[in-house]
Structures are given as C-alpha cells and as structure tokens.
Amino acid sequence: MVRITLVQGDITAEKADAVVNAANSSLLGGGGVDGAIHRRGGPEILAACEDLRRSHYGKGLPTGRAVATTAGRLPAEHVIHTVGPVYQVSGSDPSLLASCYRESLRVADELGARTVAFPAISTGAYGWPMEDAARIAVEAVRGAETSVEEVRFVLYDEQAYQVFAEQLGPSEAE
Ligand code: AR6
User: How do residues 75-118 score in pLDDT, each as one tens digit?
Assistant: First the structure.
C-alpha cells in the first residue's frame, strides 16, 4: 500500500519524482499552486503546456484528468497537471476530485515515479471545503492501484495540515 506523508509548506520546494499542479483546463497558468509552479519552474513548463494544447488538448484538459510535463527549474523531476472541480459547479459530487488523484497517480506510474507530492486540489480558488477535500483525497490515494511508493500531501498552512493529519489518523501522520 502506498505510504502517505504530510508536509507543511510550499509545494514548489519539494524534491519528489513528480509534483502535482492544481491547474485549470487551459493549462496556461493561473494563481495559487499553478502560479507558484510556473513562476518558480520557469518558462519551460509553459512551453510544454502550450505544446500539449496544440497536440492533444485543443479544447483544454478536462476536469478530473491529468497530464505530465517537464518540471523546468523545480527540484522535482516532473510536473503532473490536473484540473480539480469547482465546488459550486460540481454540487460537491466527490467523483471528479477523486479522479484527479487517481489519474495523477496513473500518469505517475507511466513516468515511473515513486514519490509524488500533491497539494490540496480544489481547496483554494475552486472553493472545496478542506475537511471534505482531505477525506476524498486520502480515500482516493488509499484506494488507488499504483506503483507509487510515497504520496506526500503538501499543505500550505497549519490549519490545512491539521485537517489532513486528523484524516490520516495517528498511525500515518508524521
Ligand atoms: N504550495 C502548496 N499549497 C499551496 C500553494 C503552494 N505554493 N499555494 C497555494 N496552496 P489553488 P484550486 C494551497 O487555488 O483550488 C489557479 O488559479 C491553497 O492554500 O492553488 O484547485 C488555477 O490556475 C489551497 O489549499 O487551487 C486554477 O484556475 C490549495 O493549495 C485554480 O486556481 C489549492 O489552491 C485552481 O484552484
């Protein structure tokens, strides 16, 4: 079973085989995690995203799907971009949010990644309540069939970290 660990901090600083970006369908950048990844990773990531738009995703990457690019200047090897659901639009249906985690892990398997760092997808601009998002994230990762050995949730602030720690329970939280 995949080992789940928690870190409080900025996901762009993580050394992992892959870091996951909470992107939008355009793949062309935005605020939050997305803005930070493109800022710190440099223009190579945006160039790769533009190529993906031209080659495979003319209409953009659908919600719940994931795709990989270079990590540019980030300390990670790859960035996996996924598009979380907007809470108000999804009517709190967890399936697309769970799909982001599963699809990202599937892409990670294709890359041969063993360590993958995730942010709390959809909990910023997309408005998903942290408790609910943490439960969906942890259940999706625990239920995934993957060769990834470690999933690291990187939570931006102390409160988000605590919510994930409670969700994991005393045996897994570090
Ligand atoms: N490292 C880790 N977590 C972060 C960081 C960081 N550097 N920055 C923010 N967070 P968000 P979403 C937390 O808004 O809700 C963008 O404009 C943040 O506190 O990045 O999926 C995209 O382009 C929150 O808990 O992603 C999309 O348009 C969580 O990461 C849209 O926002 C996710 O917040 C996606 O919205």
Answer: 999 999 999 999 999 888 999 999 999 999 999 999 999 999 99
Helix (H, G, I), strand (E, B) or coil at 13: helix
Note the pLDDT tens digit of each residue in 119-168. Answer: 999 999 999 999 999 999 999 999 999 999 999 999 999 999 999 999 99
Q: Which of 6, 12, 27, 33 to mutate to test the pocket of ligand 1 (most atoms within 8 A of CB)?
A: 33
Distances, alpha carbon 144 to alpha carbons 75, 89, 106, in Å = 26, 25, 9
Q: Which atom of ligand 1 lies at the shortest distance from residue 10's CA?
A: 1
Domain boundaries, the chain: 3-168
Considering the four listed CATH numbers 3.20.20.150, 2.40.370.10, 3.30.70.240, 3.40.220.10, the one that applies to the domain covering 3-168 is: 3.40.220.10
Take atom 12 of ligand 1 and give the residue whose Cα is closest.
Answer: 122
Residue 76 CA neighbour count, 13 Å, CB half: 33
Mean pLDDT of 65-81: 98
Q: Which of 61, 62, 23 is nearest to 45 (CA)?
A: 23
Query: From ligand 1's centre to the CA of 121, what distance in Å?
Result: 7
Pocket flag, ligand 1, residue 11 (CB < 6 Å)? yes
